[in-house]
Amino acid sequence: MPGSTTADAVVVGAGHNGLVAACYLARAGLHVEVVERDEVLGGAVSTVERWPGVRVDRGSSAHVIVRHSGVVEELDLAAHGLRYLDCDPWGFAPAPAPGDPGPDGRPLVFSVDLDATCASIAAACGEDDARAYRRFVGVWGPRSRAVVDSFGRRPTPLGLARAFWPLGAPTGDGPRTPGGDLAVDFLGSGDALLDRWFTSERLKAALAWFGAQSGPPMSEPGTAAMVAWVALLHDTPPGHPVGGSGGLTEALRRRLESDGGRVTLGDGAARLLVDGGPDGGRVTGVETVSGRRIAAPVVVAACHVLATRDLAGASAPPALADAAPPVGNGFGLVLRCLTDALPAYPGVDPAVSAQGLQLLCTDRAQLAAAHGDWLAGRLPREPVPLAMSFSASDDTLAPPGRHVVTVWGQWYPYDLADGGDWDALADAEAQRLVAAVDRFAPGFAGSVHDVHVQTPLLLERELSLLRGNVMHVEMGLASMFAFRPTPALAGYRVPGLDGLYLAGASTHPGGGVSGNSGRTAARVVLTDRRPLARARTRVQDVAGRLLRAGR
C-alpha cells in the first residue's frame, strides 16, 4: 500500500506558477511538496529532447513578463542556474512579401535601443511615425509599469488604485486625472490606440500582432495595454533561458530543493482530502494517483480552475462547483521545426531577424480575417505566422548545421464547425503555416527536415491545456483582474473550503510567463497563516516561562 506523508503545504501542478508559489512558501520556512502528473517538469514552461541532440520547448519560448515582475531576482534564480539570453532586436517585421499589395519597403527592426528603433521606423514608415513612436514610448512607459505593478498584486480596488493612481498625479506637462483620456486609453481597443498614434499600416500591424499574443484581437475593448507593453521592452527585452524555456522551471526546482522542498513527478493529485462538506469544509491534504496520501493544512492548486473543481468533487463549495469561466474554442497551432537554416528574409542579416519575435504580418486585415474564421469555427483561410529561432544565439539547443524554428499560428479552433478531425488535419495545416513563413523568407520550406505539430487538441493532451487554450481562461476584459477566473474566486481563496488556494494562468493576471500568480497566492497563504503562527508563538512562550519557573 502507498504510504502517507505530511507537509505544511502541497502544491498541485509543477508549472512555473506552482513552482514559484512553492519557492516562496519554502523560503518562509514551510515544508512544501509539489505533485505533478506529467513526467516532465514545468508544464508549458518546459524543454525536451524532441529529436536526438535537439532540445525543443513544449510551450512558451520567449519570456516577457517574468523579466519585469521581480520574481527572478527575489528568488535569486541566477544563483540556481538560470541565465537569460536577451532577445535584441526583440522584434522584426519584414517588408511586404513579393506579390502583396502595397509598396515594397524596408523591414521594421525593434531594438532595446530606442534611437535605433526610431531610425528603423523612419526608414520604413516615415519620420512622422518615428517621432510618434518615441512619444508613445514616453507616455506608455509609466503606464505599462503601472500594469506590471498591478499584475503583482491581488486584484482588489485598493491594489489597482495603488498601481494606477500615480498616473493621475500632476506632472510637468500639466495636470492629469485617472479619468479622461487615461480611462479611454486603458478601456479602449488596441486598434483604436494605434490609429490615434500612427499612420503607417505596416507599423500598426506589427504592433497589433505583438499585442494579440495575449489572446484577444486588438479590436476588442481593453486591449490597448497589451499593445503598449512594447514600451517596456526598450528597458528589458524578452529573454530565452539558455538550454530552453525549461531553464526557468529547472532553476525554480533547484531553489525549492535548497530550501527543503520537494517535487514529485509522474504522480499527480487524484483528489483533495476534505474534512466537512460543500456547505463548509477544510482541506486536509491530497491523495495522489498512486494512492499516496499527503496530509497538509494548505493546498495550492496551480492547475486549471476546472481541474481543481474536479479534484474537489462532491466537496466543491458553490463558488467552485458553479464556476464557468470562458475557456474559449482553442487558441493556436504551434510548429516545432527542425531545419538546416534560419529563416532568411531578403536583404536582412539573420543576426538581426533571428534574435526575437518575427512578426510576419503587414496588414491588420489579415488578423481580423483570421479571428473571424476562428469565431466561425473555421481554419484560417490565410494563416498568420509568428516565428522564433533561438538556436541562432543558443548553441545548446541543436547541433551544428541544425536549428529549431518555432512557428506560431493564432486563432485555430479546437472544435471545428464542420466536425473536422485535428489528428487528420495536422500535417496539412502545418504545411500551410510553413508556406506562410516561406512567402516572407523564400527557401524556408525547403530547409525544414522534420516538424512536431502541436494542434489545439495536442496542446490539451500534452500540456493539459483545456480546449487548447494556453491562457487557461480567455483574456478578454470581462475575465481579467477581479473577474478572473470568476468574481467569487478572484481572491486566490476558495470560499467555503478553507485551506484551498488557487494559482496558475486561470487566476489574475492570467496567462504568459510571469510568476505573478504563484507569488501572490503564496503571499495570501502566508498572510492567512500569521494569526496561527502568532498563537503558536504565544503558547510556546507561555510553556517556556512555566518550564523556567519550574526549574
UniProtKB/TrEMBL annotation:
<dbReference type="InterPro" id="IPR002937">
    <property type="entry name" value="Amino_oxidase"/>
</dbReference>
<dbReference type="GO" id="GO:0016491">
    <property type="term" value="F:oxidoreductase activity"/>
</dbReference>
<comment type="function">
    <text>Probable oxidoreductase that may play a role as regulator of mitochondrial function.</text>
</comment>
<dbReference type="InterPro" id="IPR036188">
    <property type="entry name" value="FAD/NAD-bd_sf"/>
</dbReference>
<comment type="subunit">
    <text>Interacts with COX5B; this interaction may contribute to localize PYROXD2 to the inner face of the inner mitochondrial membrane.</text>
</comment>
<dbReference type="GO" id="GO:0005829">
    <property type="term" value="C:cytosol"/>
</dbReference>
<feature type="domain" description="Amine oxidase">
    <location>
        <begin position="189"/>
        <end position="526"/>
    </location>
</feature>
<dbReference type="Pfam" id="PF13450">
    <property type="entry name" value="NAD_binding_8"/>
</dbReference>
<protein>
    <recommendedName>
        <fullName>Pyridine nucleotide-disulfide oxidoreductase domain-containing protein 2</fullName>
    </recommendedName>
</protein>
<dbReference type="Pfam" id="PF01593">
    <property type="entry name" value="Amino_oxidase"/>
</dbReference>
